[in-house]
Design brief:
Length: about 375
C-alpha cells in the first residue's frame, strides 16, 4: 500500500468540496478558487493531466438569490444551481486564464453515464480535452437532475469521472484531515487512518456526517473511493486547507487517508456497467445461477432466472439478485422484461419455441456482466 500512483500517475481527478470554494456559504471565495487554479496549473506543468470536479454552484446560487439557506425543493435547488453555475465557471475561467490555461465546462447528468452512447461521447470529449492541454471543470447538471436520477453528491461524480477517464489517482479535498477511527469532534482519542483498502467494509462505521453546505459526508467519500477502485484508481481524502496540498500529495508526503484499489483496472465497458446508479429492473436468480455468476465467470442463462421485476427493454441495465434480494451482479439484458418472464426456468434450446424467434442463448452475456461484490 504505497502512494506511487500519486507520485508516478499521469492522470488525476481532483474534487474540491463546497466548504473549500465558498465563503462560509456566502457565495464563492474568489481567493480560494485562485489558489486552487494556481495549484492545478503547477501540477499540469509537471505533466499530470487533470480533471477538476468542483462543488459550489448551489451555494453560489443561494448567495446570489439571497436565500437564507440551501433549499430543500428540487426546483429551487435547480434554479439556484443555474444561477450559481455562472459564477463558478466565470471564477475558474478567469483564474486559469491568468496562467494561460484554458478551462472547459462539463456538466454531466446521471443519464449521460447510464446511456452507452452518451457515456462514450463524454469519455471521448474528456479525453480530447486532456490531450489539448485544457483543464476540464466538471459538475453535476443540477438544473435537469431529479432526486431519483442524480448522483447524490460530487464525490460519486468524481469517482465516475475517474472511471470515465481511466484516472490513476483521485484526490478528494475536504475540510477534514481525512478519515478518523471516530468522529474527532466528539472523540479526543480518534486517530487518523493513514492507509487502508478502499474495499475495507469496517471503514463505514468510522464515517461521520457532512457539512450543511454540500451533500457529501465522509461516508460518501468512502463509497466514491470504492467506486473509483473498480477501475484501479487509488484515492486520497485530505484537508484542502493545508498549504500547497496538491503538490505535497504529488511529492509523496503522507497526508490524509490513502484508500487503495487493490485490483487491476477493468475494461471500459465493465467500468461503465459498474458505474450504473439505477437499474431498469431486477432478475431474481436461483442458488445455482448465483454460484455460477460469482464463482465461474459464466453468462446468465434463462434456466437460472426465477422472477422478473420492472419494465425494461433489450440492452437495459438490470440487477441480478438472490432470493433474499441481495444484489450479486448487473448487466445488459438480451431480452425485454416480458420475454424474460416467458423464459424463466427454461433451457436455452426452448427460446425459439417460446418467443417465436431464435434469440441469444444467454439472458446476459458474461462480457456485459459485472459482479456487485
Amino acid at each position: 500500500m504505497s502512494r506511487d500512483k500519486f507520485i508516478e500517475g499521469r492522470r488525476w481527478v481532483v474534487k474540491v468540496g463546497s466548504s473549500l470554494v465558498t465563503n462560509n456559504g456566502l457565495g464563492l471565495d474568489r481567493q480560494a478558487i485562485a489558489n486552487w487554479a494556481r495549484q492545478l496549473v503547477a501540477l499540469q506543468g509537471a505533466g499530470i493531466k487533470l480533471v477538476l470536479v468542483s462543488s459550489g454552484a448551489v451555494a453560489e446560487g443561494v448567495s446570489r438569490l439571497s436565500l437564507k439557506s440551501r433549499p430543500r425543493e428540487i426546483h429551487m435547488q435547480q434554479a439556484a444551481a443555474a444561477v450559481g453555475q455562472m459564477g463558478v465557471i466565470q471564477a475558474y475561467e478567469s483564474c486559469f486564464m491568468e496562467h494561460g490555461v484554458h478551462a472547459a465546462q462539463i456538466l454531466l447528468s446521471h443519464e449521460d453515464l447510464s446511456d452507452r452512447t452518451r457515456y462514450l461521447n463524454a469519455r471521448s470529449t474528456l479525453t480530447t480535452l486532456l490531450e489539448l492541454g485544457t483543464l476540464p471543470v466538471v459538475n453535476e447538471n443540477d438544473t435537469v437532475a431529479t432526486a431519483e436520477l442524480c448522483f447524490g453528491d460530487n464525490d460519486t461524480l468524481a469517482a465516475l469521472v475517474a472511471n470515465l477517464t481511466n484516472a490513476d489517482a483521485m484526490v478528494i479535498l475536504t475540510d477534514q484531515d481525512g478519515l478518523f477511527t471516530a468522529d474527532p469532534r466528539g472523540h479526543e482519542d480518534a486517530e487518523l487512518v493513514s492507509v487502508a483498502s478502499a474495499h475495507d467494509e469496517s471503514l463505514a462505521a468510522m464515517a461521520g456526517a457532512g457539512s450543511s453546505l454540500g451533500r457529501g459526508g465522509m461516508q460518501s467519500k468512502l463509497s466514491a473511493a470504492k467506486l473509483a477502485a473498480r477501475s484501479g484508481t487509488d484515492t486520497i481524502i485530505a484537508n484542502g486547507r493545508f498549504e500547497d496540498i496538491l503538490a505535497r500529495i504529488a511529492s509523496g508526503e503522507e497526508l490524509g487517508t490513502l484508500l487503495t484499489a487493490d485490483s487491476e483496472p477493468m475494461t471500459a465497458r465493465k467500468q461503465w456497467l459498474a458505474g450504473q446508479l439505477t437499474a431498469a429492473g431486477t432478475l431474481q436468480l436461483d442458488a445455482g445461477a448465483v454460484n455460477v455468476l460469482c464463482n465461474s465467470g459464466k453468462s446468465l442463462l434463462a434456466v437460472g432466472v426465477q422472477r422478473v421485476t420492472g419494465k425494461f427493454r433489450r440492452g437495459d441495465v438490470v440487477a441480478c439478485v438472490t432470493t433474499e434480494g441481495v444484489e450479486v451482479a448487473r448487466g445488459l439484458v438480451n431480452y425485454d422484461a416480458a420475454e424474460i418472464a416467458k423464459l424463466c426456468g427454461k433451457s436455452s434450446d426452448q427460446i425459439e419455441a417460446l418467443l417465436g424467434y431464435g434469440g441469444e442463448e444467454e439472458v446476459i452475456h458474461r462480457d456485459n456482466l459485472i459482479l456487485s461484490r
